[in-house]
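User: Reviewer 2 asked us to show a designed sequence for the structure in our supplementary figure. I'm pasting the structure tokens here. Could you produce the per-position amino acids so we can include them in the response letter?
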């Protein structure tokens, strides 16, 4: 019942939040950024408690990396909030306008979804990103972080709630739940929660989908690929693959599988191995790869694995078509990149790859809401409805149809006394 009460409070707050003006929201975001800076020492101390406990509990290295929330991460969070403040107000934007008839005007206008439930693991910085995005888009939010980050999440949620409410945001717009049983209760709150965004394993996401009537938006694994084509600039390819794999391994947009065209494999793979050896990357290769460089044998399971570690599976392919086929079979539909100077190959790759993000001559690590200019992200969606790719402000908005008439009635159109003009208009909704 307690979770029902929290969800009900969030729903009430979301109704008021939908009418909050842009300046008040931006003032609240600035207050949050200032409060994070002011309370940095306390946040780092809480995070150290989580890290120390998690090390004793032998939490995996990738999760420990995600869990760490130090001064640099706090600075990044503040920069993300500052970037968000600079974006134009997303709520109330006229997306299209149609004059149905004289003095009968139809507007498609952006509006918040309502109450967003977000379940995430390990990363306290995700809590700051998610809550600030929800605030900017006038959504209330219910957050469930991983138990490993319980202390950090608690202090962050308290700081954000206090700073924003003092700046005029409705009380209860941000809620934090802490246990797995709370999640199960949250899944029953379809009366109050409008959307759930789970961030976790494929099994976890499927569990959420199978145990709730609430719509679910998100992604499971991040099995991302880089394909080095026969017409690639090989120095560029080394840089792109190395960055995709090693710039930060414990994230969903890091590359997990490399595909290399057989015509360049003998030249390229030894060059790449020199670069990857600097990071002690463990390699798993197909038979053709093993004939060129030293790797462990790649199994069928390797093509399906999100390592989140300094590990990379490599396959030599005979053609662009084989690369596309492999990616569409094994990808989690997150992010794929082709390295080539052949524009015909690029066009085919980008048209046929069935993923939310498809890149040309660029690292997969660019798949990020902040880097896209979306004001950070609440998650990555591999869905094909509503939102796809990094879910920033746009993915947290829906729209409503606003019709403005002057005593118009349908009977006049049904009996032929009047007819629709359906003319496109450039007007914005007005009162």
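Assistant: Here is a per-position design you can include in the supplement:
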């Amino acid at each position: 019942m307690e979770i029902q009460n929290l969800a009900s409070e969030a729903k009430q707050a979301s109704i008021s939040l939908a009418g909050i003006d842009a300046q008040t929201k931006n003032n609240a975001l600035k207050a949050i950024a200032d409060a994070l800076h002011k309370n940095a020492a306390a946040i780092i101390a809480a995070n150290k408690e989580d890290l120390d406990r998690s090390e004793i509990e032998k939490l995996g290295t990738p999760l420990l990396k995600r869990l760490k929330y130090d001064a640099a991460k706090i600075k990044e969070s503040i920069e993300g909030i500052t970037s968000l403040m600079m974006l134009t107000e997303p709520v109330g934007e006229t997306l299209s306008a149609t004059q149905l008839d004289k003095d009968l005007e139809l507007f498609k206008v952006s509006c918040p979804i309502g109450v967003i439930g977000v379940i995430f693991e390990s990363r306290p910085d995700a809590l700051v990103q998610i809550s600030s995005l929800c605030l900017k888009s006038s959504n209330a939010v219910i957050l469930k972080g991983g138990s490993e980050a319980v202390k950090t999440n608690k202090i962050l949620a308290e700081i954000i709630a206090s700073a924003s409410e003092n700046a005029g945001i409705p009380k209860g717009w941000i809620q934090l739940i802490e246990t797995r049983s709370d999640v199960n209760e949250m899944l029953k709150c379809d009366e109050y929660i409008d959307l759930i965004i789970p961030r976790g394993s494929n099994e976890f996401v499927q569990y959420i989908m199978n145990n709730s009537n609430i719509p679910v938006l998100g992604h499971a694994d991040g099995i991302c690929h880089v394909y080095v084509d026969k017409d690639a600039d090989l120095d560029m390819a080394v840089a792109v693959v190395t960055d995709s794999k090693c710039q930060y391994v414990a994230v969903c947009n890091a590359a997990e599988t490399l595909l290399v065209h057989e015509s360049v494999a003998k030249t390229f793979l030894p060059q790449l191995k020199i670069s990857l050896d600097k990071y002690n990357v463990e390699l798993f290769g197909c038979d053709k790869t093993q004939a060129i460089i030293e790797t462990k044998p790649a199994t069928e399971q390797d093509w399906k694995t999100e390592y989140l570690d300094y590990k990379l599976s490599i396959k030599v392919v005979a053609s662009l078509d084989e690369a596309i086929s492999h990616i569409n079979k094994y990808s989690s539909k997150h992010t794929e990149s082709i390295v080539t100077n052949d524009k015909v190959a690029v066009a085919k790759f980008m048209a046929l790859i069935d993923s939310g993000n498809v890149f040309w001559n660029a690292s997969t690590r660019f798949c990020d809401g902040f880097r896209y200019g979306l004001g950070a992200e609440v998650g990555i969606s591999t869905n094909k409805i509503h939102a796809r790719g990094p879910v920033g402000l746009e993915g947290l908005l829906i729209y409503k149809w606003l019709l403005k008439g002057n005593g118009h009635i349908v009977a006049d159109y049904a009996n032929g006394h009047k007819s629709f003009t359906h003319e496109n208009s450039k007007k914005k909704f007005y009162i």
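For the response letter, you might also mention the following. Residues 22-38 form the longest helix (17 residues). The chain has 16 helices and 17 strands.
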